[in-house]
Amino acid sequence: MGPFKRYILIAFVVLSSPRVANAQGSASYYPWSGLLAFSTNPRKAIWLDTRVQTNSLFSSLSVDLLPLINLKRGEVAQWYLGGGLRVNPLYRIADPDARLITVDGYSINFGVRASPFPQKRQIQIALELNPYITDGFSSGVLKSHFGVAYVFRKREKSKDE
């Protein structure tokens, strides 16, 4: 296992610990990229984003695992950076001789989430640049993602409760 894969595995284990798993989270949709994303609390310093393609055949269904680090967090915007690993857990449908989990490629993610509505800060606009390279380092592409996110927050208890 290469050092980059080890880094992703360690980050995944840390971020999926019971303490982090019970934390607040968010759901995002990137309509032009066809991505549905779920993440741990994006307001934390380090968070995990997982993305699933929604416009793909099952045999080419890839999942992105992205540990992200917030570079700057304000009330209106947060800037983040991270690396990612794209895996394909269902590739064995198309090729029975494939590895159990096929690694498709790697990415670097740089983005911003902006909360444009003062009364509804949990609604965010997400914009991201995403250089991506295939597993064999034979080709790559610069992707951009534009979408909307909703951050789930714990309900505050009222004085009556």
UniProtKB/TrEMBL annotation:
Domain of life: Bacteria
Extent of the signal sequence: 1-23
Record's keyword annotation contains Signal: yes
Keywords: Signal
Keyword Signal applies: yes
Name of the protein in question: DUF3575 domain-containing protein
Organism for this UniProt entry: Persicitalea jodogahamensis
